[in-house]
Design goal:
Layout (H helix, E strand, L loop, with lengths): L2 H21 L9 H18 L2 H15 L6 H16 L3 H8 L5 H11 L4 H51 L5 H55 L4 H9 L5 H5 L11 H10 L8
Helix pairs in contact: 2-7, 2-8, 3-7, 3-8, 4-5, 4-8, 4-9, 5-6, 6-8, 7-8, 8-9
């Protein structure tokens, strides 16, 4: 389970439930199944109208991805690229082919296969770039479904509010206060459900999934640059240092805290960076 996702969900529900529990004499009065059915049912119905069934089914896959603690093994991929560069410099093409069978990242494997097959640099760069764009477009579309649901949920909450108000106005002539109170509660609770679902569930999931896509694109760009540097015959130490900058914190480049190359340890730190790969925060 992704820790930040778990903490966020629990904290959000705790805030809402605490507000209800400490301000209401009867907390169960906030439970209205017909109102919840209007919001959830209307939201999914509108989503089915807006998207094909195949894409709507993917919302469960996106939810699972957001909930699980997925790791991007950037350091391992970086080390694979450096090892390949070192083997090619030494002329050990057979070892590179054997190493290729052990690569788990399919995008990295594709890049190395193109490299071994002496694919022209321009063609190799364009193919890898297209793979990145294709993945980004697909995952952006999947996140957009949740953003659409976040837009529909409050709208159907308002629809339920209008239904409740109409029923309330119709019952006012009979002076049935119990029925008027029930209709008014239905009207307000549907709005509450719509706002809560949109801002505590649908929209955060979309943002979380989009952030995941950004990290994956960052990793794929690192792999693409590494493959292109190997194809250009760059030194393995240079490749390692260059690739480490993809996941370096911006503070390292701004020389915050006096730890940059401007102080007396600058040359020593740079040499250590060449000899030791940095550990990615995403790995």
């Amino acid at each position: 389970m992704n820790l930040s996702t778990l903490i966020g969900m629990l904290a959000g529900m705790a805030i809402v439930f605490s507000a209800i529990f400490f301000t209401s004499e009867d907390a169960w009065s906030f439970v209205n199944l017909p109102g919840l059915a209007v919001v959830l049912g209307g939201t999914f119905a509108a989503t089915l109208l807006a998207y094909p069934l195949r894409e709507v089914v993917n919302v469960f896959k996106v939810l699972w991805i957001v909930l699980k603690n997925e790791k991007l093994y950037a350091q391992d991929d970086q080390q694979e690229l450096v090892n390949v560069a070192r083997q090619l410099v030494q002329g050990n093409l057979i070892k590179v082919e054997d190493q290729l069978e052990q690569v788990k990242n399919p995008f990295l494997r594709t890049g190395l296969e193109l490299l071994i097959n002496n694919t022209p640099h321009q063609d190799m760069s364009e193919l890898l770039e297209w793979r990145i764009i294709k993945m980004k477009i697909r995952e952006k579309a999947e996140a957009q479904i949740y953003r659409t649901m976040a837009m529909f949920a409050p709208a159907f909450g308002m629809l339920g509010t209008l239904v409740g108000l109409v029923n309330m106005l119709q019952g006012m002539g009979e002076s049935n206060m119990a029925q008027i109170g029930s209709d008014m509660a239905f009207a307000l609770l549907t709005t509450l459900y719509g706002v809560a679902l949109a801002n505590l569930f649908f929209k955060p999931i979309a943002i979380k999934f989009e952030r995941r896509t950004e990290r994956r694109v960052q990793l794929m760009n690192m792999i693409r640059e590494g493959v292109m540097l190997i194809a250009k015959g760059r030194n393995p130490s240079y490749i390692r240092e260059y690739l480490s900058t993809f996941f370096a914190h911006v503070e390292d480049e701004l020389n915050i805290g006096g730890k940059g190359p401007g102080n007396g340890n600058g040359k020593k730190k740079f040499k250590e960076q060449l000899d030791t790969p940095k550990k990615s925060p995403f790995a």
